[in-house]
Amino acid sequence: MINGFTLSCPMPPLDFDVITLGHGSGGALTNQLLDSGVFTLLDNEFLHSRHDGAILDLSGKTAFTTDSFVISPIFFPGGNIGDLAVNGTINDLAMCGAKPRYISLGFILEEGLPVEELWEIIYTIKKATENAGVQVVTGDTKVVEKGKGDRIFVNTTGIGTVHPGAEIDAGRVTEGDAVIVSGTIANHGIAIMSQREGLSFETEVQSDTRSLASIIMKLLDEFGPEIHLLRDPTRGGVATVLNEIARQAKVGIEINENNIPIVPQVHGACEMLGLEPLYVANEGIFVGFVDAAHATDVVELLHGLPGSEDACIIGRVVDQHAGQVVMQSAIGGRRIIQMLPGEQLPRIC
Which of 175, 187, 189, 158 is nearest to 261 (CA)? Predict the structure, then answer.
């Protein structure tokens, strides 16, 4: 049991209970740590070489991304920093229209981190990579002195092959495009806040962290070039993504508050905390700009795929107020949804 969460996989017997500076020395303790965790759980032909790099066979257009994860707390309802890191990296590739294939994994561990916490994180990384069909092919581990980190930070790099039907580009966003959200918003941010603030709900709010790769590949198989742009609204939420696209594509965007999917408990928590749900982070949904003639069919396909059952059209691209996002409110008024001026929820991913 760690912080109220039960280990998903039993640990092997070890000679140490916590991470020490010696585990980052590159010597015997480092090898013991890697043998008992990383190499045991993430075993594949690339890691067998125990090399600092990996030789990969790629052809065609290739997508590449890198990210770092510093979330607090590192365990939260619905996941932990491990599957969050994997899913976040996979989703960045998927938003490029790419099928994720390989990732690298870097750990910065704080002296004193309980080994059972690290084991659980690596195990969830194993499950997340297996579910998404990707392999961890190389990585690195460093240890910093107690008080110089926050238990664990994770750095990832991802590589994927671009779907032959993908034409994902902000320059393709045009007047009339439908704006689609693939699921309920703000779940991740409120799950984190519930842990930080000790909030309780009738039904536990869980992070939506998940891989979006299989959903995106099926969309591209079916609709290909009709999918103009994809973005995952992580930090800054849906509002930030829409503002970025409006400015980049030099278009106006109009959305309808009544169409935005949100879980009642999440909506209530946002009201209680004084948060605008559109700015709250997500980790398992995407925003899509789709040719209007195919938008209904896209949503219908999404409704049949696990993880996107609540997908809906929330707005459209217009030829007015270029660079701005305007929302039709639930009570009938209209207001501009501004770019978030600062960090609404720090350390969210």
Answer: 187
Please enumerate in sequence order all residues whose Cβ is within 8 A of that of 161, keeping only pairs 6 or more positions apart, or say none.
58, 59, 60, 61, 62, 63, 98, 99, 101
Domains of the chain: 21-162 (3.30.1330.10), 170-336 (3.90.650.10)
90-140, pLDDT tens digit by residue?
999 999 999 999 999 999 999 999 999 999 999 999 999 999 999 999 999
**The pLDDT of residue 251 is above 60:** yes
Sheet holding 252-256, edge to edge: 227-231, 287-290, 178-181, 312-318, 252-256, 325-328, 334-336
What lies within 8 Å, CB to CB, of 326 at 6+ separation is 252, 253, 254, 255, 334, 335, 336, 337
Dist CA 23 CA 36 (whole Å): 12
